[in-house]
Amino acid sequence: MAHEDGALNAQEPTNVHLKTNEKLETFYETHEKLGEGKFGYVYKVTEKSTGNTYAAKFIKLTPKSKKEVTEEINLMNKIHHERLVFLYDAYQTSKELIMVMELISGGELFQKIVDEDNLNEADAARYLIQILQGVHYMHCKNIVHLDLKPENVMCVPRPGNKDDIKLIDFGMSKVLEDGKELKVACGTPEFVAPEVISFEPIHLASDMWSVGVISYVLLSGLSPFMGEDDNETINNVCTGMWDFETDDDFFDDVSQLAKDFIGELLKKNPRERNTAERCLTHEWILKAPEFEAKKLKTDHMKKFIARRRWAKTGNALRALTKLGSLKKERL
Ligand code: ATP
């Protein structure tokens, strides 16, 4: 059962730990592959005792992955919200770590938008409200996601209605402790905040930059900091300079209020960025239903998705390594 703010009741499954004495196949049947990421493959599974379907992420077991997955499990045990994928079960075998999660069957949001080619500003605002609800819940617990990007926004189909969304992938998420500075070198350069790239202390506001980039792409199909190569992208983010490409047609159909919404997130100084809570009461969000007639073009987003697919097959890994080496250079 959900509270008014979307948080799930304490009776929901919560305290998952890695099972080392039991095997996944005793309890689940594995089916088709749903997706893959840098760290592993995700398959659809069915729980034999209930017939319920889940998504199981298989990650190669190494000392490093064991530490990271244990941290991810501990973190996911703290977050239960209808906009965040929930963790149901976890196993460790001699070769793999397996996280059994809620199955989100509608695919990635941006792909769905392109397939349907029927996006208006009211829809875009509705998706952003749901992203912000998940982010706000995490931020209330002082947890920063740190990997908000279009691939981590998934669709939950609602027959006859526009989909709902859920956020996935808490592999980079961190709990911020009061009075303690935290610096990280992770994330995807196109979506990551300048303070992450320059290895300065991170804030909850680091996520808000990424929400700004997601909003920009959602409304225009254009990626605001994308350069010719990883170096150029990293430099573009570091300068914190961007615009609405007024020479081109990308933002022709986008309202001024939506542009204001983005402008209040893509601020180089994290303290100046809008919080998730303030975004949820932004004038554009409140007036969103009035923008139903503002149909948005999706052809640019089609190109964006094709390029991200390519990036996922190697380029992103290089960029991530680059963030690590940039960190070393600056130390
Ligand atoms: P990344 O390279 O983005 O860091 P990762 O290795 O951390 O990826 P995930 O992002 O968690 O892995 O998952 C990879 C892909 O698997 C996702 O992009 C999505 O397509 C699919 N996927 C992940 N979780 C689920 C889920 N709960 N339900 C359905 N599909 C999922």
Mean pLDDT, all residues? 89
Rg calc? 20 Å
Can you identify the CATH superfamily of the largest domain?
Transferase(Phosphotransferase) domain 1
Order of helices and strands: HEEEHEEHEHEEEEHHHHHHEH
Secondary structure category: alpha+beta
Main sheet strand line-up: 1-2-3-5-4
Short recap of the structure:
The chain is of the alpha+beta class and 331 residues long. The chain has helices spanning 24-27, 63-76, 109-116, 121-140, 194-197, 205-220, 230-239, 256-263, 276-279, 283-286, 299-330; strands at residues 28-36, 40-47, 53-60, 87-92, 96-102, 119-120, 143-144, 153-158, 161-167, 174-175, 295-296. It is built from eleven helices and eleven strands.
Describe it for me?
- The protein is an alpha+beta fold and 331 residues long.
- It folds into two domains: 24-102, Phosphorylase Kinase, domain 1; 109-330, Transferase(Phosphotransferase), domain 1 (Orthogonal Bundle).
- Helices cover 37% and strands 18% of the residues.
- The chain has eleven helices and eleven strands.
- The strands form four sheets. The protein has a five-stranded antiparallel sheet. The chain has a two-stranded antiparallel sheet with strand order 6-11. A two-stranded antiparallel ribbon has the order 7-10.
- The longest helix is centred in the last third of the chain and has 32 residues, at 299-330.
- The N and C termini lie far apart (48 Å).
- 40% of the residues are buried.
- The model is unreliable at 315-322 and 327-331 (pLDDT under 50).
- Bound molecules: adenosine-5'-triphosphate.
- Adenosine-5'-triphosphate binds at residues 34-40, 42, 55, 57, 85, 101-104, 108, 151-152, 168-169, 171.
